[in-house]
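[agent] plan:
  1. take the single chain provided in the ticket
  2. run structure prediction with default settings
  3. attach structure tokens to the ticket
  4. add a short note for the reviewer (M.T.)
[agent] executing step 1
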Amino acid sequence: MHDNNPVLPEGYSPVPPGKVANVVTFLEMRKRPEKSVSPELPVSLVRLGPQNLDIYRRLFRDVGEDWLWVSMLEIGDDEVRGILAHPSIETYALRDGDRDIGLLELDFRVPGECEVVYFGIVKDAIGKGTGRFLMNQAIAKAWAQPIERFWLHTCTFDHPAAVGFYRRSGFTPYKLMVEIHDDPRLTGLLPKTAAPHIPLLELAPGAE
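[agent] step 2 finished; step 3 output follows
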């Protein structure tokens, strides 16, 4: 007989149907690291503004779909344009020829701090030095401002090498949190084929 109320081992918590859970790692950098040599690549960093909404929307999906990035998919175009126009938020596309292959967003709204809001490369550009190039650009732009702290967070939905990459870049982990939210593949924000490394647990018919 199937037990609908199993006794869970100590430390375990059930995740409600239709939700996903991940462990979030917060990392920070309290001083600028020694300058790292960037790979010689035919790429450039292009600042995006509110007139580049379509580019931003497309790049957000191209970079983030496999890692379940959803925040910018949940808000309207006017709000996104407001972010792109904000004087204390810098958003960049990493461009290879006429193709955008990476996204970087830096938030300076808290005095003395800079947060990496988004950092990512499209799947077929990973492992070719583009991530190192983009991170070196991020570090240079962040510490060009009068900040005392540069920080970001990553999670178990992200590329498995993310935490190691950030630590090699000069960030130090300082906090862990567990996040539970609606699975965007079940709400329609992302296709069900997104993030195949994360199990998709379909809701039972009639379940809410």
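[agent] step 4 note for reviewer: The CA atoms of residues 29 and 171 lie 5 Å apart.
[agent] ticket updated
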